[in-house]
Amino acid sequence: MCGIVGYIGENDANSILINGLRKLEYRGYDSCGLATISNGELQISKTLNRIESLTAAIQNNGVSHIGIGHTRWATHGGVCERNAHPHTDSYKKFIVVHNGIIENYLSLKKMLKEKGYTFYSDTDTEVVPNLIDLYYNGNLLETVKKVTSIIEGSFAFGILCKDRPNELIATKRNSPLIVGIGNNENFIASDFSAILKYTNKICILENDDIAILNEKEVKVYDKNLDPKQVTIKEIDADDSDSEKNGYDHFMLKEINENTITVKKTIDYYVIDGKINFDLNLTDNDIKNIKQIKIIACGTAMHAGLNGKNIIEKLTRIPVSVEVASEFRYSDPILTENDLAIFISQSGETADTIACLELVKKKGIKHVSIVNVKDSTIDRLSENVLYTKAGTEIAVASTKAYIAQVMLIDLFAIYLADKLESYNKEELSKILNYAIELPNKMQEVLEMDSMFCDYAKSISNCRDVFFLGRGLDYYIALEGSLKLKEISYIHSEGTQFGELKHGPIALMEEGTPAIVMATQEKLLDKTISNIKEIKARGARVLAVTTLKEFPVDIVDEVIHLPKVCELFSPLEAIIPLQLIAYHVTVNKGLDVDKPRNLAKSVTVE
Ligand code: AGP
User: Fold this and answer.
1) Which of 341, 581, 601, 603 to mutate to test the pocket of ligand 1 (most atoms within 8 A of CB)?
2) pLDDT score for 125
3) Are 229 and 258 within one domain?
4) Residues 461, 497 within the same domain
5) Which of 38, 81, 411, 422 has the fewest CB atoms within 10 Å, counting from its CB?
6) 430 lies in a domain?
7) Which residues contact 425 (CB under 8 A, 6 or more apart)?
8) Between the CA atoms of 135, 137, 141 and 145, what dihedral angle is there, to the nearest 10 degrees?
9) CB-based burial of residue 239 (10 Å sphere; 0-12 exposed, 13-18 middle, 19+ buried)?
10) Of 2, 203, 297, 355, which residue is the catalytic one?
C-alpha cells in the first residue's frame, strides 16, 4: 500500500528520497511522486511508471535539503498522474503526502470549494493542504493540530510549507509513521526499510503525535501540543535483507530462504528439546482455554487454518479461523476463557489490527504471531511470538507463511505439553520431526527443475484447480492464492469432496488440476475424487508424500520426501510457490510487484 518517505538535512534530498521510494516499492503501488524545495522553488514530479522514471524526471532539479516522497496505491480516484501524491493547496504553498483514508473528505471538499478553493484531483488527500491553508495562522504546529481534529479516518502525513524550507512536519492516526534520526539529517517514513540505509535510530509516532523535524533536531508533541520525550529505538535489521543477492527476483530468493527460516524459528524457540515461549499466560490460563479463534487475512489466514488442524489434533480445543475483515463486523461471541491468536507478517494489516483492538476491549487473552518487530500489532499485543523470516519484500508471501506455519505448529505442541493432552513421548517425537524438516525442505527446493517444467505446461491456461482434503485443502488454498495473485490465472482452491457440489462444472478436457495428497487416511477418498475429475478430462498433477500413491491414475506426479503428516504444509507448499513463480516469469509479468496488490494492507 501507500508509502511515505521524507528528508531534511545536509545532503541532497533528491537521491535520498528516490532511494527511500525504491525501498518502499515492495509494498505495492500504482504511481509515485516527490516534492522538494530548492532555492525557494517548489518542485513536484509524479509518474505512473516505476520509481526509475522519477529519477529521470528530477534530473534537472537543483540540490535540495528538504522533501517528501510517496508511493500511491489508489483508493479514492483512479490511477492517473493528477491523483498521484504529493498534493498541494490551490496556492501551492502547502504540500502533503498521505497514507490512509479521510472518511469525511466529501463534506470538507464542499466547504473548501465554497470558500474558493479549487481541486485538481479526485483524491481525499487534497482537502488536507487546502485545510492547512484555510486555517494557517503562522504557526504550522497549531494549524496541523486544528486540521487533524477536523478530519475523520486514518492517516499518516508528511507535510511541507514552501515558505518554511527548514521544517518538515509529520503526524499520524491509525496508520504507521516513524521518524528516523541521523547526524545533521532527519527522516520520516511509513516503514523503516525506506531509511535503514541512513539510520537505524527511529522514534515511533503514536496516534495524533505531531513531529517537527529540522536538520539538527526532532521535536514531538502530543494531541494537546504538549512536548513529548523523543523515545529512540535502535532497529535490529539489515539493509541487505532488501537486496536480491544474485536471485532474479525477491520471490525466488525468499522461497529459497524457506529452509533457513524454519531452522531459525526452531533454533530460536526450541532449547534443549523444550519449547520456550515468553508469554504472559499462566498454566492455569492455558488449562482454562475453552476455544481458540485465529484471526488473520490472506496467506496469514491460511497459516491459521494449518494451526486449526494441529491445535485441534494435539489439544482437542476447538479452533475457528476467522477472516479479519469479516470478524470485526460480525458481533463475535467471545467469552473470558477464549484465546485469540492474530497472525500477520507486516503487523500493519488494518483489518487484523481492528480485530485485535476489539478483542483487547473485551479483555480476551491473546497472542500475536508477527514478523515485523515494532509494527503496530507487535506494539498493541499483550503476547507476541516473532516469526524469524527476516524482511519479506515480494508481495506474494512465501517464507513468512512458512515461518507462521512453523511457529503455530510449535505453539500447538507447547499447548499440548502444558495441557498434557497428548502422549508425552509422541509429542517429543513430533518435535524431533520438526527439527528434521529443514533437510527435507531443502530436498524439495532442489527439485525445482520439475516444477519449472510443469509450470511451462500451464502458463497459458485460463483456470487451474488446487484440490485436497483436510490439511491438504489448506495447502491447496494457499497454492491457489499464490498462483492467482502473481500470474493472474484464475485458480480455485477447493475441498476435493465439495467439488461435485458445484465447481466440477468448470472441469473441461485438459483443465489442469493440482491435487495434494499428504494425508494417508484420506488417500482412498482422494483417489475416488481424482477418478471423478479424470472422467471429465482434467489433466491431473499429484503432489504427494505418500509412497503408496497410485501413480497410474494421474498424468504427472511430484513425489516429496515423507515427513510427519502434521508438517506436510511446510514442504508441500514449496512446489506450489515455485510453480506460481515460474508461470509468472514465463508470462513475462512482474513477479515481485503484481498489479493491484500491496505488501502491507493498511486500509480496510
Ligand atoms: C500474501 O501472498 C498476500 N499478498 C496477502 O494475502 C497477505 O498475506 C495478507 O494481506 C495479510 O498480510 P499480513 O500477514 O501482513 O497481515
Assistant:
1) 601
2) 95
3) no
4) yes
5) 81
6) yes
7) none
8) -30
9) middle
10) 2
- Which whole-number Å values give the CA distances from 505 to 472, 501, 516, in the listed order? 22, 9, 20
**Which of 190, 251, 255, 299 has most ligand 1 atoms within 8 Å of its beta carbon, as the pocket-test mutant?**
299
* Poorest-pLDDT segment among 236-245, 383-392, 510-519, 579-588: 236-245
Residues in contact with ligand 1 by the CB-under-6-Å rule are 297-300, 344-346, 349, 352, 395-397, 485, 597, 601
590 found inside a domain: yes
Residue at a domain's end among 410, 444, 478: 444
Amino acid in position 52: E
Q: What is the CATH number of the domain that holds 565?
A: 3.40.50.10490
Ligand 1 centroid to Cα of residue 346, in Å, is: 8
Residue 551 CA to residue 139 CA, distance in Å, equals: 75
Three-state SS for 163? coil
Listed residue (359, 351, 415) closest to 385, CA to CA: 415
In tens, the pLDDT along 8-61 reads 999 999 999 999 999 888 777 888 999 999 989 999 999 987 888 888 888 888
Mark whether 161 is an active-site residue.
no
What is the per-residue pLDDT across 252-274, written as a single tens digit (0 to 9) for each?
Answer: 999 999 999 999 999 999 998 89
- For residue range 449-499, what is the model confidence (pLDDT) as tens digits? 999 999 999 999 999 999 999 999 999 999 999 999 999 999 999 999 999
197 and 260 inside one domain: no
Question: In terms of residues, how long is the chain?
Answer: 604
Active site residue 2: yes
The CA distances from residue 553 to 410, 533, 542, 546, in Å, are 36, 11, 10, 14
The pLDDT tens digits of the residues spanning 371-428 come to 998 889 999 999 999 999 998 999 999 999 999 999 999 999 999 999 999 999 999 9
Give the closest residue to 69 by CA, choosing from 187, 180, 175. 187
Q: What are the helix (H) ranges across 421-542?
A: 424-445, 448-458, 471-487, 523-534
> What's the rounded Cα separation, in Å, for the pair 361 and 277?
24
Q: For ligand 1, atom 5, name the residue with the nearest CA.
A: 298
CB neighbour list of residue 594: distance below 8 Å, 6 or more residues apart? 28, 395, 396, 485, 486, 488, 584
Tell me which amino acid residue 117 is. Answer: Y
Instruction: Look at the pTM and tell me if it is higher than 0.85.
Output: no
Q: Give the 3-state secondary structure of 370-392.
A: ECCCCCHHHHHCCCEEECCCCCC
d(CA 593, CA 598): 8
Number of domains in the chain: 3
Number of helices (H), then strands (E), in the chain? 18, 27
Ligand 1 mean position, distance from CA 251 (Å):
14
Q: With contact defined as beta carbons under 8 Å apart, do 58 and 86 qualify?
A: no
Percent of residues, the chain, with pLDDT higher than 90: 83
Neighbouring C-alpha atoms within 13 Å toward the C-beta of 127: 23
